[in-house]
Each structure stands twice: as structure tokens, then as C-alpha cells.
Design a protein that fits this description.
Bound molecules: NADP nicotinamide-adenine-dinucleotide phosphate
CATH superfamily: NAD(P)-binding Rossmann-like Domain
Largest sheet: 7 strands, parallel
Shape: globular
CATH class: Alpha Beta
CATH topology: Rossmann fold
Length: 244
């Protein structure tokens, strides 16, 4: 049991849930390898972890690029000697009503939330097969568990990942663990990705006083990773107590 000495890739680790997860897993002895687009922000997270006595490295990665996600995983294996888990966390939520026709935002959510996660799975699976051991953790959302206006495409991408996660779990065999984590409202930069003014105002209003700190999600991810190899935590839903 435990994650001490393990090598864990985290996408979207430059802020929010990914950053909090990197910091928590490193504090528990994992070597964390961080990917996101903003290199300066990644280096700042790595510096904070190293200053606290942890082990971390980073590589600028756009999850819309399959070659970059493969390079991130290869970098982790080269630096850590193995790959114990990949946390496909990178995601965006430029939500809007369908009649706003923000089709570019729909495409962006499909590319980052769905394709980016699939690229993470594709990059990690051959490594996990070679090792006969591994863990895929996909960060989805309570959107899709509860369907609400403005979240149509966002929830669709998250539910597509939810479906893929469950089928991967069924295909995975005895050596690969597969976990989906569904955060509710969490205080991160997430709202900044919303371009539609009315949807943004609505979410800011809903987040209001009830949003959880991102380490609430990090603790859920840690729980799944800390289980013994024969125990596979399939799904975790974490909401603020006040979320309806
Ligand atoms: N906050 C919430 O209430 C909430 C609720 C449910 C689910 N979630 C999910 O939680 C995950 C993390 O979001 P967050 O709330 O922590 O928001 P955040 O603070 O905005 O973090 C999103 C992360 O994704 C990265 N990212 C975005 N596009 C990327 C790309 N093309 N390639 C690589 N990295 C990319 C961002 O880094 P760069 O900009 O540096 O690339 C950032 O590190 C997402 O999957 C989101 O859908 C969030």
C-alpha cells in the first residue's frame, strides 16, 4: 500500500485540482510529473514541491496533441524508471446554451476533455502492459450526473469519458486499475475558461460561497491510489455539502 516511490503523471497540473493533487501526492512520497501548456506555472508548482522536500518534474504539454502527451509519458518513464499512474485531469469548461452557437467552444471541449483524456490513456496503456501494473485516473465531473442547462456539451464530454472509463475498466484485466473522479463545484481557475458572459455570471454566482478547495478532490484521488493493487476504486463523487 502507499504511493511512496511511485511515478505519477498528472495533466492539467499548472493550477487548480491538478496542482493540488501534485502537491498532495508529492507530500506522500510520489515522484510527480506534471503536464500543462503554461510552462512558467508548471515550473512554479515544481519549485514549490521541491522546496517542501518532494520530487517533481514537468514538461510543457498540450493534451490536444497526441505526440505531446506521449512525450510527457515517455519523459516520466525516463525520469522515474516506471509509470505507476496517469491522472487525466486537464479540462476546460466554456459552457453556454446551445442557441448561443459557440461551436468553437464545443470543439475545444471535445478536443481537451475527451480527446486529451483518450490520448493520455493511449500513451499510458503500453507502459502499463509492459509493467503488468498501472492505474488510470480520469477526472470527470458531477456535470453529467446532474444535467443542467448551459452544460450540454461540457457534460457530454465528461459523460463520454465516464463511459470510456467504465469500458476500459472492464477490459483492463487484473493488473490495471481504472478510476473516475467526479468533482462538484471546486474553487479553481476553471470559471476563467467560460467565454459566454451570462453562463459565466451564473457559475460564479453558484460557486459563490460553497465551492470546495481543490485539495478536497486531491484527497479523493490519493485515496484511490493508496489502495492495495488488488483493490480498484471505480468511482468517487465529491461535492460541497451545500451543492444541490
Ligand atoms: N472546478 C470545478 O468546479 C470542476 C468541477 C468538476 C470537474 N472539474 C474538472 O477538473 C479538472 C481540472 O480543472 P480545474 O477546476 O482545476 O480548473 P483549472 O484551474 O482551470 O485547471 C485546468 C488545468 O487544465 C490545463 N489545461 C487546459 N487546457 C489544456 C490543454 N489543452 N493541454 C494541457 N493542459 C490543459 C490547465 O493548464 P494550462 O492552461 O497551463 O494548459 C490547468 O492546469 C477539469 O477536467 C475540469 O473539467 C472541475
Amino acid at each position: 500500500m502507499g504511493i511512496e516511490g511511485s511515478t505519477i503523471v498528472i495533466t492539467g497540473a499548472s493550477s487548480g485540482i491538478g496542482r493540488a493533487t501534485a502537491e498532495l501526492l508529492a507530500a506522500h512520497g510520489a515522484f510527480v510529473v506534471l503536464g500543462a501548456r503554461r510552462e512558467d506555472a508548471l515550473h512554479a508548482v515544481v519549485a514549490g514541491i521541491v522546496a517542501a522536500g518532494g520530487r517533481a518534474a514537468c514538461k510543457a504539454t498540450d493534451v490536444r496533441r497526441r505526440d505531446e502527451v506521449e512525450a510527457l509519458v515517455a519523459f516520466a518513464v525516463a525520469e522515474g524508471g516506471r509509470l505507476d499512474a496517469i491522472i487525466n485531469n486537464a479540462g476546460i469548461g466554456p459552457i453556454s446554451r446551445f442557441d448561443a452557437l459557440q461551436v468553437d467552444d464545443w470543439d475545444a471541449m471535445i478536443d481537451v476533455n475527451l480527446r486529451g483524456t483518450l490520448y493520455g490513456i493511449a500513451a499510458a496503456l503500453p507502459v502499463f502492459a509492459r509493467q503488468a501494473r498501472g492505474h488510470v485516473v480520469n477526472v470527470v465531473s458531477t456535470a453529467g450526473l446532474q444535467n443542467v442547462p448551459t452544460m450540454g456539451v461540457y457534460a457530454a464530454t465528461k459523460n463520454a469519458v465516464r463511459t470510456a472509463t467504465e469500458i476500459l475498466r472492464q477490459e483492463a484485466g487484473p493488473h490495471l486499475r481504472v478510476t473516475e473522479v467526479s468533482p462538484g463545484m471546486t474553487a479553481t481557475r476553471f470559471v476563467d475558461t467560460i467565454s459566454d458572459a451570462s453562463a459565466k455570471a451564473m457559475i460564479e454566482d453558484q460557486l459563490g460561497d460553497i465551492a470546495m478547495p481543490p485539495d478536497a478532490i486531491a484527497r479523493g484521488i490519493l485515496y484511490a491510489l493508496m489502495q492495495p493493487p488488488e483493490v480498484d476504486v471505480g468511482s468517487i463523487v465529491i461535492r460541497p455539502t451545500a451543492q444541490g
